[in-house]
Amino acid sequence: MNKTQIKHITLSLLVIIATGGAVLGLSRAVFQDQEVVDPVITMGVLNLQVGDEDPANVPLDFSGMVPEEVRSYSFEVNNTGNVEGNFWMQAFITESSEGENPESEPLTVFDGDIAQCAKLTFSMIDSESNDVVLINDQVIETIDQQMFEVAQGTLVDEAVNNGPTNANLTISAYGCGSETMGDILKLDLFFHLTQV
What we know:
Blueprint: H1 3-26, E1 48-50, E2 70-79, E3 85-97, H2 114-117, E4 119-125, E5 131-139, H3 140-143, E6 146-148, H4 155-161, E7 165-172, E8 184-195
Antiparallel strand pairs: 1-2, 2-7, 3-6, 3-8, 4-5, 4-7
């Protein structure tokens, strides 16, 4: 045997030994521990309930009012979710018209005069049991497209988030006269709850 053959045989034996050692090392038993973290992700709920049902079903009947009449209604406002929110509201006049009246209205100034004479008051009970007036005897025309109770972290917000709390809505027809006979006013009050 010459030196080259001996080198090849020696190299082959070393490769076989190294490969065998690696195979034996990988097949030996070892201790192992494994832990699994399995998070469940859910989103919180912010749900404003106005009245006894969701969506809002608050029966407010202001039909057939007469001058100097006042009608008030109370209902609950509550965040039934588990995420706190900032309560606020908006008012929108969606219709103001003359409606149907068989008699003439000699003093009519506007097309639908109720918005210029009827007044609205809206209040809520805060977390310290105080009656907080959000809209104070305002002529309805002046609250159109306005926002109320927009500040965050108020006692009213706290009452809604930990509620239910009571809300009171009053419409007063003081100041309305014969010019409003048969007139129609449709007013939307939007109640909002925005995540803080």
